Structures are given as structure tokens and as C-alpha cells.
Amino acid sequence: MSLYIGLMSGTSLDGVDGVLVDFWAGAARTMAAAYVPFPPALRAELMALQAASPNELEREALAANKLAGLYAECVQAVLTQADMKPADVRAIGSHGQTIRHRPELGYTRQTGNPALLAELCGIDVVADFRSRDVAAGGQGAPLVPAFHQAMFSQEGKLRVLANIGGIANISVLRGDGKATGFDTGPGNVLMDAWILRHKGKAYDEDGAWAASGQVIQPLLDAMLREPYFALPAPKSTGRDLFHADWLDAQLAPYASAAPQDVQATLARLTVVSLANAIREHAPKTEALYICGGGAYNCTLMRELAAELGAGTSVDSTAALGVEPNRMEALAFAWLAFRFNERLAGNLPAVTGARGERVLGALYPR
Q1: DSSP conformation letters of 197-233
Q2: Is the pLDDT score of 177 beyond 90?
Q3: CA 202 to CA 195: how far, in whole Å?
Q4: Which fold, 3-141+326-363?
Q5: What pTM did the predictor assign?
């Protein structure tokens, strides 16, 4: 066996997903999976660290220590589930929590204290995957398309995999061994912020609140004029752009709008921006597979199918054998595997880097 653990905590700031994976003979067999939610105070602090604030260096360090404790809890959960010991695992691939992503300025920041994680778990940790790509002139994101290409491309078939987490991104698998991909724009991030503000809920379960409203078409049109959507790929984005202040600026002319109508419009923004990206970059897509939290949003899934039409089937990645909430953790286990084998983990066609690079930094146990 060639066992690796992948850990992912994404833009939605809900918690840590972990998987134990066997990469023997080039396959990826998931042996165990676990989820550890963020305590509300930690989630609030990570949200605050997305922007400049007082004493942020110390606060980030303390938050990173708390994250490492949660990551270690998730590692123990998958080990217990699989009846494995730390010595059985070659490495942990830890994405960390993105708190700033500014590749145009030459940096990206994922916090999580991998040295402490290695100490707590007694397992090698590979972390900081994005910085090497940024150093080579790339966006450092998205990285998951390389994993999608390795595991899910099929000769002669044009497939698209879309991750709808806080931010949405696509992997275009062309069937000739080539792949492209980029961040399409907001996934759940704006919808989550809006329902938290008005309902005190972390997310819109099944998209039910959005489904109860009516799309405000002028608002949608205004949001779609955001310059990011017109940028050519490679490109990536995050909370540095799509945040509460951005949303409030868009909403200024619609102060009297019903909250559920705004939620319906935000859901439509996710659908249309994603569908537009597919129509532009993969117009003959036969199958779209969704992972991330958006795969559990019935409203998003239904609207995507309607928007793309009968020529494109829309399903979750469960149809490919991977539960939607495990895909990204699985990808970072794979990136740790690639690091240990000293194999490239990026796709320059996706990130814009000057070439293939081995990604990550090692923190030995």
C-alpha cells in the first residue's frame, strides 16, 4: 500500500475534510473519510484575517495553531476509522486555510502550521502547495484540475468537472490528454454571507431560500459586469474580490429588494457565470460533474442543467466514484504523493506558470 492523508479546509470556512487514500499502482482508493467542523470563534477569526486588521501577525499564528489541532483531530479520525497507525501513512497533504490570495502581487497565503501538525500526528506533512507555482509566474490556483486530469480524463470524451465551494472553478478534460481550468467566480461564498446576515444560517440548505425568491435581472446583469468575468484564463480569485463589501456595493441601488430575491439572484450569478465559462471554453461538453458543497444544493444543480440544456448531462462526482465533499481532500493527498515522487503537481495551461513544478514543502515527522 501507498497511503496518504489529504486535508482540505476551503473558502466556505465550514470545517476540515480529510481522506485516507491508497495510491498503489496509480489508482486512488479512498479507505476512510472524516469531517471536523470549525468552532464558531475560529471561523469568525479566519474570516476576519481575510482583510487587514490589528495585530494580525500574532492572531494568524494563534489561529494556525488552532487549525493544526483540528487537522490533527481529523487525521486521527480517519486513522481510527481505517484501523491504521501513523507509521502506516507516508505523508499528509495539507492545503491549509487560504486567508489571502494575491498572485498578481506574487504571493498567496495558506495558514495552518504544518510543523505543529507533523509534531501532533507523527507523520510527514507536505504543505504550501501553491507558492511554488506562484514563484514560477503562475496563479497558484486552481490546483485540482491536475488531479482531475490524472484520474478522470477519458479518451475521446469532453468532460468538465466543476467544484462549487466558496469559489467555483472548472477543469476541462478534453479527451486528448490535455486539460485547462480556472476559477469561474463565486460559488457559495456570497449566498452563504447573505443567508448568514438575514437568517443566521451558515448556508442555504438545498437552495430552498433561493428557490423561494425571484431573480432581480438588473442586479444580475450588473454583477455579471464585474471585470473578473471577462478576464482571459489563466485566472483565479477568492474572498479578496468576492466579499461582503463587493456585494453591498452591488446592492446599493436595490436597498428595498426582498432578501430572498437577492438570494435567488446570487444563486443565479453562480449558475450563469459557471455556465458561461463552460460555453466559452468547452462548448461541446457532453458531461458536467459537480463536486463541493454546491453538489448538495438542489436549486443550483437543477438550474445548471436547465441553463446548459439537454446536450450536457449534469451530475455529481459520485457518478465517478468520488463523493462531492471528498474531492478536494483527495486531490491534496494526491499532491502529497506527487511531491514524494518528485513529480509535477501543476498544469501550466491552468495556472499560467512557466512550466511544470514539484509543489509543496516538507515538514518531517
Answers
A1: HHH--SS-GGGHHHHTS---HHHHHHHHT-HHHHSPS
A2: no
A3: 7
A4: Nucleotidyltransferase; domain 5 (3.30.420)
A5: 0.94
Query: Per residue in 223-232, is it b (16+ CB within 10 Å) or e — as a string?
Result: beebeebeee
| CATH number for domain 144-320, candidates 3.40.980.10, 3.30.450.40, 3.30.565.10, 3.30.420.40 | 3.30.420.40
Over the stretch 128-170, which tens digit does the pLDDT of each residue have?
A: 999 999 999 999 999 999 999 999 998 988 999 999 999 999 9
> Residue 29 in contact with residue 359, Cβ under 8 Å?
no
Q: Which residues contact 126 (CB under 8 A, 6 or more apart)?
A: 91, 92, 93, 94, 114, 335, 336, 339, 340, 360, 361, 362, 363
Q: Are β-strands 313-316 and 167-173 bridged in parallel, bridged antiparallel, or unpaired? A: unpaired
Q: Please write the tens of the pLDDT for every residue from 302-323.
A: 999 999 999 999 999 999 999 9
Q: Environment class of residue 35 by beta-carbon count within 10 Å: exposed (0-12), middle (13-18) or buried (19+)?
A: middle
Asked if 167 and 183 count as a contact pair (C-beta separation under 8 A), the reply is yes
**261 band by pLDDT with thresholds 50, 70 and 90:** very high
Please check whether residue 280 is in contact with residue 272, taking contact to mean a CB–CB distance below 8 angstroms.
no
- The Cα 274–Cα 272 span in angstroms is 5
What is the per-residue DSSP string for 223-274? HHT-HHHHSPSS----TTTSSHHHHHHHHGGGTTS-HHHHHHHHHHHHHHHH
DSSP 39: P
